[in-house]
Structures are given as structure tokens and as C-alpha cells.
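U., I forgot to send this yesterday:
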Amino acid sequence: MSTKPLNGKVAIVTGAGRGIGRATAERLAQEGTAVVLAARSTHELEEVAAGIQSAGGRAEVIMTDVTNRSEVRRLIDRTEVIFGRLDILVNNAGAMQPLTPVGELADDDWNRCFDVNVHGVHYCCDAALELLAAGDGGHIIMIGSGQGHSPSPGAAAYCSSKAAVSMYVRVLARELRPRGITVNEIVPGAVATELLSWTVGLPMERLHELEPALGGDRVKEPSEVADYVAFLASRSTHAGPTGQCFSLLGRDL
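Result:
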């Protein structure tokens, strides 16, 4: 008998090709979870899947644009066909904006943040509910942001979209608790990802230079966030936490 806490479970991880999504998929697979990797680009997903499979895990690649409801529906339907169940949904796909004051913020940047961070999250949750509830219950885990809880000048679109997700977590948790589905948010803080590198205009190897401005926080590795995703996914679906925000920041939100 396997001693892996998530053995036999099935997870979908969005934005699984890089950064936190990749680390999360790899961590869940290490715990015995069959992982469905979803993102817009299959090249990165195939690389992640190959690594998981070579280590003895199970991984399936399903190219998905989370802002397209029909593609999200296909993601859930194919997961059911392949694995017959869904236990964990990790909404990790996210979009940031160039640091720009509101008077100069392009509509495309505003819309992109809401399309991915809010609409994409809703589409995934909405499509997955019945399959999550069909088993012994399930977990929905949102990768949130401290900027959804605290204002950051120059990031109105990103802050506002992540704040919307934080409230969505609390509402959805109340709706789904009777069905044995938990809904929680993880706030990672600054993480060494290509998305953060693009946003602040620093190469990956120099991201640690941000730390003096982080108010006591530090730049973390994606694997640190993945460890906490695995922890939440292993909690009881009926007695575990729900509607909560778990912060990995080194300071108050």
C-alpha cells in the first residue's frame, strides 16, 4: 500500500508550464497524484509531463486557454474521460500588467488581468464543480496575491483582479462546503518566476535585489509555494479549512 498522502487523486493545474504551476504539478505528482497540465502552450507542458512520467508519475497535457469557456469545458470533460474523477483544482494561471498609473493604463492590460485572473478562475471553478462533488469531495486552491489585499500604486488592474478572486474564494467556500469541496487562497508573496521578472524588468538572477523593498518578505522559490498547495490538498475535505487565505508573506497583508 502506498504511503503517499495523495495517492490515487487527480488534479488539474492551470498555468502548469512554468513557475509556481510547474512546481505544483511536480510536487503533487511526487505525492501520488495524477496531474492534468493545462496552459496555452503545449511545448512547456510536454517538458513538464515528460519529467513527471520519467519519475514514475502520471501526467496528461491538455492545451487550454482559461479565458475561453469552451476550452475550459473541454479540459474538464477530457479529465473525466481519462481519469474518471477530479479531486484537486489549482487555479494558478495568472496575468500581470506593466507597472503603469491608472491614467496611462491601456485597456488591453486592464482587460487581460480580469480575463485571466477573474473570468478564467470562474470558468474553471464553474466547469469543475460537478466532477469535484461526484467523488469524496475536493479542493479548489487559488494562487492569490498580496496585492489583492494591499494596494500597490501602478498595479490597479492586477490588484483589483486579485482582490476580486479573494472575495470569490470566500463566497464559493460557503456555497460548496455542504458538497464537501473546500476553497482556499494561497498568497505566495514575491516568487522567482519569469512573470515577476517581466513585471519588474529584472533578470531572474537579480530578483533578490527586490527584497529591501518587500517589507520583510523575501523572494521565494516556486517549490515553496508548491509545498503548501500539497499540504492543503491533503487536508480533509469535510473537516479541513475552507474560505481561508494562507499567506506565505514575511509580513502582514
